[in-house]
Write a structure and sequence with these properties.
By secondary structure, the chain is mainly β. Helices cover 9% and strands 58% of the residues. Mean pLDDT is 89; it is low at 2-8 and 11-29.
Length: 227
């Protein structure tokens, strides 16, 4: 009987270990969906090593049952009249019943022109982009970050060139963000690891409120201007 008890304990430990091993890093149940209101927006000031670098704005509009999302990014570094770095991005997403029905994006990245077009065809998305042409599952989420379902994904759709990017997501933990106007937000921080590794913060309502990453040895930080 003691040996039977020891064997049962070993089996229990192994079962628990396997359950932990195969549990997803981020489970769907812990994420709260966010439904933007009509004419609402997320406006970020982008800092590079603590200095103003540009902006990233996301605006939302409801057209009947369809949600239209406009993304606009402009980043630049100048030295007097010289432009040392520039990045411009504009894209429009259309969603219905939580499904991406179309997306069109254009990006100018240090003079390089990138583009992508995604259109719903049956139960898939047809992608035509400078980085990829082909089909993608309807469940794929663009890399525009505002949709918290991005951090439930194993792959995302590049908003720049239409590439299908594999991602690994890590939950860092809960944090309270404080803003210059005295406001504070309870958030959860996640790390998205792909061709670029970025930390993303979402508040209790599932709203995207912060981003931070390193590029070329520079620290890039998104600060929400209307917390």
């Amino acid at each position: 009987e003691p040996r039977t008890m020891v064997l049962k304990n070993h089996i229990l430990v192994i079962t628990i270990f396997l359950a932990m091993l195969f549990t997803p890093t981020v489970s769907a149940g812990e994420l709260s969906p966010w439904t933007p209101k009509d004419a609402s927006s997320l406006n970020f000031e982008v800092l590079r090593n603590g200095k103003k670098f540009g902006y990233h704005n996301v605006s939302f509009k409801w057209e009947g049952e369809e949600l239209v999302v406009n993304n606009e990014i402009e980043l630049k570094v100048t030295l007097g009249p010289l432009k040392l770095y520039s990045y411009e991005h504009k894209s429009v997403e259309r969603w219905k019943d939580g499904v991406l029905t179309s997306m069109k994006g254009k990006t100018k990245k240090e003079g390089e022109q990138l583009s992508m077009l995604a259109v719903k065809e049956g139960d898939q998305l047809s992608i035509t982009g400078t980085g990829y042409e082909g089909m993608a599952p309807l469940s794929i989420i663009p890399s525009s970050h505002w949709n918290i379902r991005e951090i439930q994904s194993s792959e995302i759709l590049s908003s720049e060139d239409g590439k299908i990017l594999p991602v690994d997501i890590k939950r860092i933990g809960e944090e309270t963000l404080k803003f210059e106007n005295g406001a504070s937000l309870k958030t959860t921080r996640y790390r998205l690891i792909s061709d670029l590794t970025a930390d993303l913060w979402y508040d209790e309502n599932g709203r995207w409120v912060k981003c931070q990453f390193s590029a070329r040895g520079q620290n890039i930080e998104y600060i929400l201007t209307t917390p």
